[in-house]
Design a protein that fits this description.
5-stranded mixed beta sheet, 6-stranded mixed beta sheet, globular, 13 helices, 2 domains, about 20% strand
């Protein structure tokens, strides 16, 4: 079935850790992105629940994407949910989380509600109901745990079925990016796709070319795929731990006692503050009471005061947002000036490029090694790789891109749409697997 815009009865969804995009194939060929927000074909993977919303109006009153983030930044009373994809393979999925006003919702239902919104936006633009979908998935939802990885895909499939998709196919996100790249090439080539987003860094070595375009089965063209569960949100976490949380006492020593070597204050509270989907757990009354009782453990009382301010005023997500902005600023300008006046008047810190590099070094090296390992798995030498195709929000981090490129010095460096190339590639795959 086709409508006046040329859209057919299926959809491609890139449900990303940080950003999402949706594509509709055109009846006359090619694919196009759905406008998810005014003038925007991509949007942050975010949901905001207003604290004053009656339970029976939850679906109607949720805010999504940029509107969700804006409500949070503007101080609207409620709960912002991000990085929802990261909980798919965890035990959190069936747990409930507080969303304000004495209400709670299961994380699983948050995912379902978000997918329902994406589906509704696609149907509004297509002009008809859509029951068939291709969805992207990372190479690994969970590293080195096949059972949990399968559990994560099953959970995403269950959420898709719950919103009305009756026919569902999955495709690896870096493979989808390769298909998007293939739509642009005129000769056959061997491409290493680097899809580095918010939650995972995935690599695929793929043969692409005009003669292969449009095939439903591309298994023989995929020489290897590999990935690690490290990406943008991990970078943000390390930046926050290195730059911001020391001002709240992270890694500081307790007051010295006679005859004892001073020990660090407990670090668990800081690790949770720097992990987006765990931030709300630090606001639990029992945990807050525990931290209040630990005042004597802090040699500098200002550290304890700032930590309590963060917990009592629920500023954890604001600090995480400050870390994300600092990561972006240091990548663009070589330094980031971080205003923390929300914690204490006049409080600020500075993140320099060398400090950011040191904080991220371990993660960057693991990601670079994953890229090199992908070629080794395929039995391909670095010199045989003809192109590097970079996609995903975290490929904006120039030092990371440069280090990956250095492993393949003769390959052409190609930049895809950081936020939409996966959705477009999923659309090409949808055209191949679903009859029009």
């Amino acid at each position: 079935m086709a409508d006046h815009k040329g859209a057919t009865g299926f959809v491609a969804i890139d449900f990303g850790t940080s950003n999402s995009a949706v594509a509709l194939p055109r009846a006359e060929g090619g694919v196009r992105l759905v406008e998810l927000e005014l003038g925007q074909p991509t949007m942050p993977t975010a949901v905001f629940y207003r604290a004053d919303t009656p339970p029976q109006q939850l679906d109607a009153e949720r805010l999504y994407g940029r509107a969700a983030v804006a409500a949070y930044v503007e101080g609207v009373d409620g709960r912002l949910m991000r990085s929802m994809k990261s909980i798919l393979g965890s035990n959190l999925l069936d747990q409930s989380t507080d969303i304000g006003g004495g209400r709670a919702i299961k994380y699983r239902d948050v995912v379902v509600g978000y997918l329902r919104h994406l589906k509704a936006r696609a149907e509004a633009e297509a002009g008809h109901a859509v029951s068939r979908a291709v969805m992207g998935r990372p190479v690994f939802f969970v590293d080195d745990e096949p059972a949990r990885d399968a559990q994560a895909q099953a959970a995403l499939a269950a959420a898709a079925h719950a919103v009305g998709f009756t026919e569902l196919h999955f495709q690896y996100e870096p493979i989808a990016a390769a298909l998007d790249y293939e739509s642009q090439v005129t000769t056959e080539s061997l491409v290493l796709v680097a899809d580095i987003g918010g939650g995972t860094s995935d690599f695929s070595l793929v043969r692409v070319g005009p003669a292969r375009r449009g095939r439903a089965e591309r298994r023989d063209d995929i020489l290897a795929n590999h990935g690690v569960h490290l990406a943008g949100t991990d970078f943000d976490r390390h930046v926050e731990l290195a730059c911001i949380l020391p001002l709240l006492g992270y890694r500081t020593l307790r007051p010295a006692k006679a005859g004892e070597t001073p020990r660090e204050v407990p670090s668990g509270i800081y690790f949770d503050l720097a992990t987006w989907h765990l931030i709300n757990t630090v606001y639990a009354p029992a945990r807050l009471a525990e931290m209040r009782s630990m005042k004597s453990w802090y040699a500098d009382p200002r550290h304890h005061t700032r930590l309590l301010t963060t917990l009592e005023e629920k500023l954890g997500h604001a600090l995480a947002g400050a870390a994300e902005r600092a990561k972006i600023d240091v990548a663009l300008h070589g330094r980031a000036d971080v205003d923390l006046g929300l914690l204490e008047t006049g409080l600020a810190t500075t993140l320099l490029e060398r400090d950011a590099s040191a904080a991220l070094e371990s993660d960057l090296e693991r990601i670079v090694q994953a890229a090199a390992e992908t070629a080794r798995m395929a039995g391909v030498s670095p010199g045989q790789v003809q192109a590097l195709y970079f996609t995903g929000g975290s490929t904006g981090l120039t030092p990371l891109v440069d280090r990956i490129s250095a492993c393949f010095p003769t390959a052409q460096q190609v930049r895809g749409d950081r936020f939409a190339s996966v959705a477009q590639g999923l659309g090409w795959h949808a055209r191949a697997v679903f009859p029009t």
